[in-house]
Amino acid sequence: MLFITNGDSAAARIEASGLTGEILPWRDVLHEGPVPDGFSLEELSDVRARFLAQRGWTSLARARRDFARRDAALASYGDHGEVVLFFEHDLYDQVQLIQVLDWFSARLLEGTRLSLVQTDEYLGTIGPEKLRALFRDRRETTAEQLDLGSTAYRAFRSPDPTAVLGAIEAGTRALPFLAPALRRHLE
After folding, report:
1. Distance separating alpha carbons of residues 170 and 110, to the nearest angstrom
2. Do residues 142 and 174 touch, judged by C-beta distance below 8 A?
3. Which regions of the chain does DSSP assign to beta strands (E)?
4. For residues 104 and 141, what is the distance between their CA atoms, to the nearest angstrom?
5. Which of 114, 118, 151, 167 fits as disulfide partner to 141, beta carbons 3.0 to 4.6 Å?
6. pTM score above 0.70
7. What pLDDT score does 17 carry?
8. Which residue, 4, 33, 1, 45, is CA-closest to 19?
9. Mean pLDDT throughout 64-92?
10. d(Cα 179, Cα 20) in Å, to the nearest integer?
């Protein structure tokens, strides 16, 4: 099983809860800096690495190495019987979630179940019992969620902010925390 979650704090909580599998923390503050459209994940990872290094948040070498590991772990999804997306309600997580959903929307998931846990609580503060309960309540990701993730991610990457508004207005019922997060982004 592969868990993909919003960062190191949530990853540590998942590990401490006793859930077993590989844990992939998605370490990128996508709502800061460039996320240009038309780039593959690997190409975008380089853009993001350069931005994070320019901000002084990490070195370029470390950012590139971390993104390369992350991207390789993601690409190995077929080695797992299930991939569980574990994300919370805020802007940071929702943008990461739509990036991951967009990536998976272009993949054949033959033999790999893709499931989703969404919560309005911060994963980095939830106790082990609550995390296990959230895991038990996970739902298989739907085609509607994958499509919405792709649509919203394209809108997020658009240089025209009205694209984000259009994605919100088109409806985000399949991802209940997405519209408030995107509104926050527009603010």
Report:
1. 30
2. yes
3. 2-5, 22-25, 82-88, 113-119, 139-140
4. 10
5. 114
6. yes
7. 95
8. 1
9. 96
10. 32
Report whether 112 contacts 82 (CB < 8 A).
Answer: yes
Neighbours of 143 (CB within 10 A): 9
The mean pLDDT value for 40-62 works out to: 97
In angstroms, how far is CA 78 from the centroid of its own chain? 18
Q: Which are the contacts of 81, defined by CB distance < 8 A and separation ≥ 6?
A: 1, 111, 112, 113
3-state SS, residue 139: strand
pLDDT at 110: 87
51 in Cβ contact with 63 (< 8 Å): no
Contact (CB, 8 A) for 181 and 94: yes
Tell me how far apart the terminal alpha carbons of the chain are, to the nearest angstrom. Answer: 37
What is the overall mean pLDDT for the chain? 96
Answer yes or no: is pLDDT of 167 > 90. yes
Angle among Cα 168, 171, 173 to the nearest 5 degrees reads 115
Q: Could you give the C-alpha distances from 175 to 141, 146, 167, 179, in angstroms and in order? A: 10, 10, 12, 8
CA atoms of 175 and 165, how far apart (whole Å): 15
Instruction: Return the structure tokens found at 112.
Output: 């790999």
